Amino acid sequence: MGDIPIDMPESKHVKNIVTIGDGAVGKTCLLHAFTEESFLQDYIPTIFEKSEFDITVDGIDHVIKLYDTAGQEDYDQLRKTIYKHADCFLVCYSVDSRDSYQNVKPYWVKELKSVASHVPIVLCDIVIVGDAYVGKTNLLNRFRDNYFEDEYKVTIYDRADFELNVDNCSHVIRLHDTNCHKRLYLSRRSIYENASCLIVCYAVDNHASYQSVVYNWTREFMVVRQFVPIVLVATKVDLRKPGSTGCVTTEEGEILSKQINANSFIECSAKEDIRVRETIYEAVRAAVVGVPEQSKQNDANDGFCCGLSWNCCNIS
User: Fold this and answer.
1) Cross-referenced SUPFAM superfamilies, in alphabetical order (predicted)?
2) Alpha-carbon distance 183 to 190, whole Å?
3) 263 and 129, same structural domain?
4) Average pLDDT, the chain
5) Residue 288 per-residue DSSP state
6) Same domain for 261 and 195
C-alpha cells in the first residue's frame, strides 16, 4: 500500500494533527463539532478524512491539518502511513467505554510509538514537596539551568516546562516547585489534582524533614489523590561525610521508601550535581509505570494509620 498523501510541514506554523482511538469513541464527532460547529447524530464509521483550516493561537497564525482515522484493526496499515509526518496525536477514549480507555496505552500508544516515536505524547506533571530548606528549588534549578543558589530564598511557586527523552520515549514535563507553608495548602492542593508523580524530599542533615515525609507530605497529598507514584528523594548527601554521624542514613531512607510504597528512592546533591538528572528521570519513569501494586493491595485492607501502609507511622 502506498503512503497516504499527508502533507509535509511547509513551515513551523503548519501542523498535522492525527486523531486515533477505538471505533465509536467520537473522533469524527469531535472534529466535526470543531470544524462545522454541529454534532453528528448518526454513527458512520470513518476510514479516512481530512480537514484543513486556519487558526490563531496565542497571537500566532497556524495552518492546521486534522486527520480522522479508522479505529478498526483492519486499517492499522493505513493509519501507520498517516502517522509518519504527524506533529501531534489526539488519543481518544470514551467515558462510557472502559475498553476504549484500557486500550489507550497497550494498543494505541504502542502503535504510534512504533512509527512516530519522535512525537511527544506523554505529559507528566511532577510535583516537588518537602519541608523548607531541604533543597527543592535548588533541585529544580540544577536540573533546569545547571545552577545552584548558595543563599536560601523562599519560593512561593515555580514551574519548569521542557521535553525529555527517557528510555527512548519523548515526554513533555511540567515540574512544579511548591512552598511548604500551611497557609498555601489550597495552592498545593490545586497542583496535586493533576499530578502524575510526587517527588517527596527530605534533607539528610534534617531528621525533622525525614519525619515530615509521612506525618505531613504523603498524608497531605493522599487526602487529595490516591494511587499516584512517589519518588522519595534524600537531598544534601554532600553533607554526609565518611565517618560522620547525625545524618539520616541510606538504610533509613530505604526503610522509609518501603513504608510509603515509593516507586524508587534516590539520594542526591544539587550543590555537587550528584544524581539530580537521575532523580527527574526516575520521576518520569514512575509517572509512566504507575503506582506499585503493593500500594493498591494495602488500600484494600483496613487499619492503616494514614492510608499508606501498616507501618508507615512507625518511624524511629
Assistant:
1) P-loop containing nucleoside triphosphate hydrolases
2) 13
3) yes
4) 83
5) H
6) yes
Q: Roughly how many angstroms between the first and final C-alpha of the chain, as a whole number?
A: 66
Task: Give the full edge-to-edge strand order of the sheet including 122-130.
Answer: 157-166, 169-178, 122-130, 197-203, 230-235, 264-267
| Same domain, yes or no: 108 and 202 | no
21 and 88 share a domain? yes
In whole angstroms, give the CA distance from residue 239 to residue 241. 6
What total of structural domains would you count in the chain? 2
Q: Are residues 133 and 280 in the same domain?
A: yes
Which domain range does residue 229 map to? 123-289
Residue at which a domain ends, from 57, 82, 114: 114
Q: Which of 185, 220, 184, 217 is nearest to 202 (CA)?
A: 217
Looking at residue 214, what DSSP letter applies? I
β-bridge partners, 266:
233
The DSSP element (H or E) to which 107 belongs, if any, is: none
> Can you give the CATH number for the domain in which 225 is found?
3.40.50.300
Q: pLDDT, tens digit, for every residue of 165-187? A: 888 777 878 899 999 998 898 88
Q: Are 286 and 270 in contact (CB under 8 A)?
A: no
Q: What is the C-alpha separation between 175 and 267, in angstroms, rounded?
A: 19
Tell me if residue 169 falls in helix, strand or coil: strand
Residues 205 and 108 in one domain: no
- Three cell numbers, residue 256: 522509609
Query: Is residue 79 a part of any domain in this protein?
Result: yes
Q: Kindly report the CA angle at 62 between 56 and 64, in degrees rounded to 5?
A: 110
Q: What is the pTM of this model?
A: 0.63
Among 171, 155, 152, 151, CA closest to 280 = 171
Which parts of the chain have pLDDT scores under 70?
1-12, 43, 58, 118-123, 294-316
Q: What's residue 302's pLDDT?
A: 40
**CA separation for the pair 293, 229 (Å, rounded):** 11
